[in-house]
Design goal:
Strand content: under 5%
Radius of gyration: 31 Å
Shape: elongated
Helix content: 40-55%
Number of strands: 0
Length: about 160
């Protein structure tokens, strides 16, 4: 079993150390074996095992919770730029990239704005010839045929 831990040991070392410690209490697996499987040295584990949570980790956790609340409050639509703007207005000092990275770690992705593209585009092709010269009156049926094509909004019934 190979678990890529490069990012896990750099971004959340305390969480990984807690996971290794829990394997012994919950599943009776030794620290040595868990460290070997996860390709982490035992000295690294013992270094991080009893280390207190840093202020940076606490702030990052609080920021992640606020980001999740804003995202859910927006109906899962806001992306990182909009959430960053709301955070700055609320008094947080944080960069757009940090917000984007946290959102990616939390699995949050805003909806992309879909631009409605019309069916007709002016100046893209020549207009159809006007054989009736805009005179749609007729003396009998089936002498002049015309049609009207209009776009209907998708939101209209």
């Amino acid at each position: 079993m190979h678990v890529p831990l490069g990012e896990a040991t750099e971004t959340e070392p305390a969480a990984l150390a807690a996971f290794i410690g829990n394997q012994r209490t919950e599943h009776h697996v030794s620290h040595r074996l868990t460290c070997q499987v996860l390709e982490v040295s035992e000295s690294w584990f013992y270094k991080w095992r009893n280390k207190p949570t840093t202020a940076r980790e606490v702030r990052r956790g609080q920021l992640a919770e606020v980001i999740r609340q804003i995202f859910e409050g927006s109906g899962d639509t806001y992306g990182s730029p909009k959430i960053w703007l709301l955070l700055v207005r609320a008094g947080w000092r944080v960069s757009v990239n940090t917000v984007a990275r946290l959102m990616a770690e939390l699995g949050l992705a805003g909806r992309k704005i879909r631009r409605r593209r019309g069916l007709t585009r002016p100046d893209k092709r020549p207009a159809a010839p006007d054989f009736v010269r805009r005179d749609f009156t007729a003396d009998a049926p089936y002498q002049v045929w015309c049609g009207d094509m209009t776009e209907k909004d998708r939101g209209d019934p």
